[in-house]
Amino acid sequence: MAILSLSRSRCLLAAALAAPLAPGSAFAQDVSAPAILQWFDSTYENQENRLGDFFLAGYGGTWVPPVGRADSGNQSVGYDVYDRFDLGRANAPTLYGTETGLRTLTDRIHRVGGSIYVDQVLNHNGFSDASRPGFIAGGGYPGFFLQDPDGGSDPFGVPGTDGDFHSAFEGGDLRGRLAGLIDINHATNFRFIRTPVNANDPRNIPAGTSANRPDPANARFYADRDLDPIRVFNPYTGEQDIAIHPFNTSDPLAGDAVPENAMGLLMRNSRWMVADVGVDGFRLDATKHFEPFVFDYFDQAVYRASTRTNLDGSRRDVFSFGEAFLTDTGTLLGVHVRKDIDPNDPGRVGGNRDTLDFNYQAALARNLQGNAIGNDWRAVQASGMDVADDGLINGSNGLLFVQSHDDGPAQNGLAMNNVAHAHMLMRPGNAVVYHNAEEHGDGRDFPKDGRRDALGTGSDRITTLTKLRETHGRGDYRERFLEKETLVYERAGSALVVLSNRNDAGFDTRRVEVDLPFGTPLVELTGNAAAEADIAELLVVDNDFFAGPSKVTVRALRNDGQDKGYLVYGLAKPESSAGIQLAGSTRTIGPDAVPLTVDTDGDGVPDAGSNRDRSRARLAPLRVVTGDTLGISLETDAVTHTGGWLNPLTQQIEQIAVRDRDADGDFAAFRLDGGLDLNGSGAVDFTTPGSTAYGFENFTDVNDPGFFNADGRGRFAQTIDTTGLAEGEHYLTVRAFRHRDVATGGDGGPAVFEDFKEVLYVDRLAPESALAGLTPFSADGHDIDFDGRSTDGTADAMHFFLNLGSGLTDAEVLAQVDGGNAGNRIDRDLFRRGFTGVAAGNNAVTLVTFEVTGNRSVRRYSGIGIDNGNGAGIGDVDGDGSLTRADLTASATNFETFLYSRNRLFSPAADANGDGNVDTLDLLAIRPLFDAAAVTADAAAAYDEVLDRRGNLNGNGDTDSFDLLFLRDNRFTTDADLLWTLDLNPDGTLDGVDAELFVTAFLGEISGDFTRDGVIDLDDADAAVLALTDVDAYQRAFSIDALVTGDVNRDFVFDRGDIDPFLDLFADGALARQRFVDAGLLVPEPGTAAALGVGLSLLTRRRRR
Fold it and tell me: At 533, phi and psi to the nearest 5?
């Protein structure tokens, strides 16, 4: 094997080592924005689950179908709009999910650093019209008139008129019904409150039986006119000093409903979707079917609507792109494209709109046919909007796409789908990859099939190209060779794209110029060359006889019926055999265990099995992070290329090894999510929007690039604090750049890098949940749905238990978890389980919440008062509707059963105080119920029996003073059984509170009532003096142990320390104090005046039967 050393001399600069800088380019350059994934027929839940795959593939945004409620039902794709503000609700989702699910997906895409574009339908509503029986009476479309308002005699308008729509009998692009969908007349001006809030507002659109009904919650769909507006001038409408008020995201119900026309509703919805829901822009449906003035109002509606800013604080403008099936590029560029926002003139409305390039898509389809006879690259190169404006392929206009939900290979005969995507994805500008997840069934006629491998499922052909677009998508477009069957173009100084539209076997050799220095190695990056013996894996830049421009000799691989005729030779990127190393991530959750079928023939279509199951399977491993810190490190390798090289002299493939020192890399940085300050610098280090280092942080612990080391190995490390990160998925990128810096001997070309990525799952805390509500689902109210909410959004499953005892350990509860007690997911963060025969009383619900890591929490919610007639409620423990002896004792389910279970069992009818326990406090709390006149004497007697049994602390059969003495003598016990018996106030400790409770509740005495007459007065002071001077005499006189009545401070000793607490029982204790002074038990207080009266606390003792 020949060894070639092709590195240039290097200047080792101390400054470069001391102060890492983001790589820059020596010249302005065309850029390929990260690809947009058109992600259709997938629920928000599945999209969120696969965001790790979206991240790893290098997509920068996603386009999703219309998100509002559809007219034809919840299986509709969504273009037949019924209600634009109904994005799906708990237990009433759209085809894709709920508003909460969309908001969460939007937030997570932003966390990745991406953008979300929603398909917005401004041209039409659904299929229903005034001829549909009952539709007018129901209210029609929310916010729209089906008939012209007539001033009030008929609330639904004038029959035979068309309200906010064009007539069914009109035609043409602007007034006709596209695919039978009712066409909106944007020129009508019926001004009403179209999303009614206040039922008494006379400006409301007429309410039907189901639509347009006033609801106070509708206030959130309006801006808050009490908040300061922005004021703008719209040069396209000529309107000046336009006040645009913000939506109040802190207090959504502060919105103010105002009258508007149909156009106003459409624009309000567009601004709400951006400012409140958080989307980044729109794909505008059917734009050739509405008047150009609609664009003027749309641009105003979304102008400065986004609250999302760039890391440098600059504004992020809403980006939208239209669908106009037009061949006239002049109309497209003049009407459908507008890019005139001036950040230096924020008071002037501008637009940030582009449009899908149907001309380019059609040219690809016509010229990549299977028979290949008519295929002609020259027709493709001359097509499209990008060339039409300035004659250059520079990404200035148009969104490129190969296929879509409306049209694909099955419709247009495109046979070389991979080749088409390679041509598109390596070009400058914006590009869209279409993925139909087929989550709602294989083989639906609409939307059309897409690239099933767009996220890497079954094949890496597309994801390889989207990654190359990210790593090599910079540099001006250079057309290096163009003929009917072969196209070679360069991204100047970065990559060479070699394409063939021939469908036979073999290759075509061409010699082309490149914007790279002599001796630069180029590596084939798609993997297609590796499988072909006649195709070089390596190219080395040379020239003709050591003079003239740089050149390479390439072979264009023909397709041979396998859709493989594309090669990308690019500058080599830094390499790392070990990849990112994480210190603090102890385990990995592997990909979803769904069988995947390999795409053996390379057409992007797995060969067997359920497309739905494959599309739902997450491929990205999750690295679980449980600690408060995480160590991130990357060690790059010294790069040597080995493989087949095409010798330009012999035209033979030779095996060589090429040392590529520039690929060792001279800079690396890391980014978490869209950009966070994690290295302690006080701010994100690189914040210039659009730069290749945007959102990245310098490595400050170890920063040792390989280019500056003799061994070529680079070392980078950083420890980050994870305590500020939200629970759940996060997205880590370490970007290592190829050396290109002129100051250190580089060629000054555009940035080329390798991204090393990991999907993290932060799991420091147990999942958080809360009981979210309950809803009866039977007429008698006995059967109830309980809802549990995942408050931190991490729940993967939630299990519900009704009325488990509080004494069960978490392990005992977890042992009961199975499918039978699992809740159904009814919203992104909401789970529901129904229970039948729920008893009246204070119920308790236990939620067991799991997240994908297996981490779980057990939370019990008590005191859920339910008065549904299923039993008499508190006290009716056996649930027969009355209070009897059986509720208390001597039955299968009675109060004593639950009391003496020590909270291992639970009854909602026994938990009188609603604290989730059944204990002595509940026994005492139900006393008034059994004292009531309606209760039988037998039931009342049963209560006293139960009370006496509980008060018999010493077990001698009686409840008396000896039990108090027993409590005193054992108050330091460590025996669990005895502790439970004595802990009458169940707080886990034995103290004076338990003693006081025993005295008052079980003995029926009052602390300080020495005479036991139910009143504390001067007689009690005299009796107290007797007790302190001759305790035996006191106890004989009043038949009570002095500890019961006299230990007022409940320290388990009756002594002089109880005098002051006793005197505190009087409103004015002066006379009582004198009794103790006279007896020599207290020292007189100097200057104390004689009391004028005696304040008595009249306390009634509970009389025992």
Answer: -65, -25
Question: DSSP label at 336?
Answer: I
Last residue of some domain: 740, 762, 784?
A: 762
- Residue 710 in any domain: the answer is yes
Give the C-alpha separation, 674 to 679, whole Å: 15
CA atoms within 13 A on the CB side of 18: 3
Q: What is the pLDDT of residues 1036-1057, one digit of tens each?
A: 999 999 999 999 999 999 999 9
pLDDT at 542 over 50: yes
**For residue 718, what are the domain limits?**
584-638+663-762
Q: How far is CA 752 from the centre of its chain?
A: 32
Report the relative pairing of strands 521-524 and 640-647 from DSSP bridges.
Answer: unpaired
CB 1011 within 8 A of CB 1020: yes
Residue 946 CA to residue 777 CA, distance in Å, equals 38
Query: Residue 301: CB partners within 8 Å, gap ≥ 6?
Result: 267, 268, 270, 271
Chain segment 462-483, per-residue pLDDT in tens: 999 999 999 999 999 999 999 9
Domain boundary among 762, 782, 813: 762
Residue from 232, 195, 190, 227 nearest 214 by CA = 195
The order of strands in the sheet holding 547-557 is 507-513, 547-557, 542-544
Query: Which H/E stretch holds residue 353?
Result: strand 352-355
Residue 705 Cα distances to 42, 150, 641, 710, 1095, angstroms: 42, 76, 19, 11, 88
Per-residue pLDDT averaged across 154-160, rounded? 84
Q: Which residue type is seen at 304? A: R
Nearest to 724 by CA among 628, 790, 632, 583: 628
- Report the length, in residues, of the chain: 1105
Q: Which residue has the higher pLDDT, 382 or 421?
A: 421
Q: Are residues 692 and 800 in the same domain?
A: no
Q: In this structure, are 731 and 620 located in the same domain? A: yes
In the block, residue with structure tokens 């076997």: 505
pLDDT over 80 at 1026, yes or no: yes
816 and 747 both lie in a single domain: no
List, in sequence order, every beta strand (DSSP E) within 22-140.
36-40, 61-64, 69-70, 81-83, 115-120
Banded pLDDT at 615 (limits 50, 70, 90):
confident
User: How confident is residue 1093, by pLDDT bands cut at 50, 70 and 90?
Assistant: very low
